[in-house]
Amino acid sequence: MATNTGFTTAQTFVFEQTRVARYVALAETAGGFTVPDSTGISDRHFQPIEFPGVIESASVIFYRTRHTGRPSFSVRINEASLTQYTFTNDDPPERSWHEIIPARGRAGSTLRAQNNELIFGVSGDGAVTFGDVVILYTSNELTVKIPIVLTAQP
């Protein structure tokens, strides 16, 4: 503590914690995928998705859509509903989207370090092609751990 003209002031001690913005790009969405698919399945699941070092903080998902007809679609990650939309005749055929992923839901943190599930669902008249899905989140890890695989030579 320091004394200055009769007044006592406290010094603040801080602990620095790493916080960096990281992203996960779902490579399997780069070419786009259509829902419903040719077999009629009306949703598409991506799992497991990992977010190394994720901390409980608002995150963002980005993706693009191209649609035919007037379908409705929804996007969900784990227990959090992110988007519910029904296309109209006035909507452009192609759009890009960004949605805030809430930090916390009823079941706890929305994003987990491991075993996350992202679901795109479509119903109604038409189809939606989704693509280029990227999720931006906050992490307390500066580096990514990459497992080393050793193979014996024959």
Descriptive report:
- Strands 3, 4, 5, 6, 7, 8 and 11 form a 7-stranded antiparallel beta sheet that branches. Strands 1-2 form a two-stranded antiparallel sheet.
- It has one domain: Sandwich (Jelly Rolls), CATH 2.60.120.
- The protein contains no helices and 11 strands.
- The model has no long low-confidence stretch (mean pLDDT 88).
- β9 (104-105) and β10 form a beta hairpin.
- By secondary structure, the protein is an all-beta fold.
- 0% of the residues lie in helices and 55% in strands.
- It has strands spanning 2-4, 7-9, 20-25, 33-35, 43-49, 59-77, 80-86, 94-101, 104-105, 108-109, 116-139.
Keywords:
154 residues, mainly beta, Jelly Rolls, two-stranded antiparallel sheet
